[in-house]
Structure prediction request, 819 residues.
Amino acid sequence: MDAFWQDLRLGLRGLAKNRGFTTVAVLTLAIGIGATTAIFSVVNAVLLQPLPYDDADRIVSIREERPAMGGNQGPMAFLTNDTLKAWRDETDTLQQIAGYNSRSFTLTGRGEPARVPGAGVSASLFSLLRVPPARGRGFRRDEERPGANTVVVLSHLCWQNRFGGDPDIVGSPLVLDGRPHIVLGVMPPGFHFPDPETEIWTPLVLDMPERHPGEIRLIAFEGLARLKDGVSLEQAQAEGEVVLQRLRDGQQGPAAGLPPARMRLTPVLDQMVGEVRPALFALVAAVGFVLLIGCANLANLMLARGASRRREIAIRCAIGAGRGRLIRQMLTESLLLSLLGGAAGLLVATGIHRLLPRLAPGDIPRIEEVGLDGWVLLFTMVVSLLTGVVFGLVPALQSARVDVVRSLNEGTASASAGGFRLLGVNRTRSLLVVAEVALAVVLLIGAGLLLRSFMLLIDVDPGYDPRNVITATLNLPHAKYRNEAAGEALFKEALERWSQDPAIESAGLVSFLPLSGAEARIVFGIDGRPQSSNPDEWIIARPQTVSAGFFQAMGMRLAAGRWLTVQDDERAAPVAMVNETFVRRYFAGEEALGQRLRMGGDTPFEIVGIVGDVRHSGLDTEPMPEVYSSYLQPGAGRQAFRMNVVLRTTGDPVRVVPYMRQVVLDIDPNLPLDNVATMQSRLQTSVAQPRFYAVLLGFFALLALGLAAVGIYGVLSYSVSQRSREIAVRRALGAQRSHILRLVLRQGLLLTLAGLLLGVAGAVVGTRMLSSLLFGVELTDPATYAAVPVMLGLVALVACYLPARRATRVDPLGALRYE
Prediction:
């Protein structure tokens, strides 16, 4: 123990004596460890920490996948009420099963009407998650029936913020969507499901009558299940397939119109974070590379410092210090540096965490749980200690192999670095520089691929003009607008009032806004074509109900035929428009105009126009077939109670928002305007994740590039200082400055070239984890693989030129006189 404290005192004294070296080392470590800690805290919160429910690993997401309804965007997946009932009554592998869907409610009677985020949930959901209400009770199964579902459970934040923490809240009345409800309970603090914004839960109604003869009226939602103890995921899925097949064989009526489905059970955590896992792993690899490059730089610094301390070490050996004691002393200094760097890295990580809410997109799951908890602090300490060993071990071993007699005879000034020398540079130092360059190349190529992918993504034509467009949602309370005519009258009056404002060029309504995340697909029929028995050949498209001015308000393109007009609403025979993808897929080689579609009901719709494709689900997804019909004409897919408003303005669209709200309040004082946003902001939000990953990986790649350049510069500068006598002799014998310049440049550029070759080979393998994040770019994109070596080569050339120029200025007489 005395020896340990002695090593510690000597290490601290040595670091304090060499403040410049200590400062550079700690800053380098702070960058590497701080970035690594920050990214690990994200990975820890999003991927590693279990969900805050008892036995969360037994909870699975349950869906029915219907490939025939997916088109080129993957299978459409949801859970239906028929399947939930069958699984609830007929399975032996599940303890419980519950459905849920996110929705919002209009809360009135407490000041200005407000739209509150909520969810409809099965009565079994809270017990499935094993989180009972902190006050009151949850739902009973008999409250899932229509008319009996006028009860609610509040979140703790909703109770505090909207009801002032009223201790008598249980049993109190409130009005949602124009209907009186009773508060049954309040959930405990910190509970949120299915997302942190949810404030109110109501029972999920599983029974709904058909609206039109032959129309599918199954309710689609998300599903959760808890596996029984000892039951595997595979066993539950196998039983689910049997139940689903039995249900399909006995299905009659509207449910038989859906394409066949297969069950998909997924651990709920995987379901939540599956899409972001590859990106987070890529960021972990990136910060790991940055940390390794920093370690290589520090190892080079330690080697240089060890060479300058060769005489000191020789004296210690001469007076009896053993090799083990020398190695231990050097490692103690390395570990002290790494712990100081780790402490500074925590400060860097804290700063990154403060910026994270501004930088990270809100659709990364569990991002709000990121923080510096005990696991993160333990990780930082372990990384700090390992880092100290990584960058300190090789210099310690080399320093302990000192030639005592030679070092004491030569003195410090001319002490050699020892060992085999590659172009005048110690082999170990050369290999470290090559490794730095190779790691930087891998990072730069990965960042280049993501950046190029992002540039291609934002250059995609969305199918509309988002400039000067404001959007919002109108949700009509069912209780008040039970009659469809009342809702239609409100929509028509609002459109007429908005159109009268000179700041509004055009106004329209649509059932599903682009980039809203809402999905709906139904099976269509075409007059004159028999319905195929093969679901893969069914005509499936997204139904859109719109007003006559929607297309002009969105700035869409008319490809053929004509737009829908107000006069079409009064026609006895309904009409519709289809998009170009619908025509290519279902009318290849035929004239689409004049064809007649059937959408659920018996009345056919005549196709009168073809509109340009819209990237509805995202800029990185191909357009789906779409059918547009008037919201005033009956048919499948009609939205009687919920429509989205689209207004095109002459100037800044945000300026018309107060007028938009006032028009709605004038018509109905209890109706809020919800989800107000410009179309440009929606478009920017849709690319927020790829932009975040590209920017973050690019930042780490630039850090790696800078560290690699510093490493090359440091090695060559040290080489020049160690070879000053050789350079002086060459100058004295007549060597020209250009010859000295080429000698040093060649030394640095050969090391860079070796790193470039290794880095390009490593990038071919290492960038495979980015495949799911790229859009329109191949993993072996020639432009990226050509640009990165050129850029890094130019940076390396500058890093080599500075010490090379200094070498040409060595004074032969001064250097030889010193020797």
Remarks:
- Confidence is low (pLDDT under 50) at residues 209-217, 411-425.
- Residues 196 and 387 are 37 Å apart (CA to CA).
